[in-house]
Amino acid sequence: MKPIEQHSIEQLFTEARTYSHWQDRGIAADTLRQLYQLAAMGPTSMNAHPGRFVFLTTPASKQRLLPALAEGNRDKTLSAPVTVIVAHDPTFYRHLPELFPHMDGAEKMFADNEELSNSTAFRNGTLQGAWLIMAARALGLDCGPMSGFDNGKIDDIFFAENGWQSNFLINLG
């Protein structure tokens, strides 16, 4: 493998900043699908892929998010073309027979150890959020990752039915 070009390094790392102001342009659905497909290819331990992404693309979906946001994050989130909730599934291990089939018992290892399951889901879900940022930068999108919200409220609003847990948000534009 050879190193990538300097302009790519700049786009991904040295010129990448956290953005808070956005152009009044949307992001095409095809671009969001490509973004997800690229981020999904990033490695995680045991190919566990516990990360879950919720793409908020409409004003109505972002209004649902507002009660959980800190005051300083509301305007920039409402003005961003897309906001992504980066979350993780603490029961990711249910998919290990398909994602990591060459290790018998991988699912049981996590099912029988809640602490291991939670820490693995959080760590690797965070990593997948970073892969999403890198994929977004590679596709020419600006990113505004942020905390400054109430995780419990987001989890109640968006994840009450599936048990996922929010980690951080990313505004995209």
From TrEMBL:
EC number(s) recorded for this UniProt protein: 1.1.1.298
GO molecular function: 3-hydroxypropionate dehydrogenase (NADP+) activity
SUPFAM superfamilies: FMN-dependent nitroreductase-like
Tree of life domain: Bacteria
Coiled coil: none
Keywords carried by this UniProt record: Flavoprotein, FMN, NADP, Oxidoreductase
Domain Nitroreductase: from-to ranges: 17-173
PANTHER family xref list: MALONIC SEMIALDEHYDE REDUCTASE RUTE-RELATED
Protein name from the UniProt record: Malonic semialdehyde reductase
UniProt source species: Porticoccus litoralis
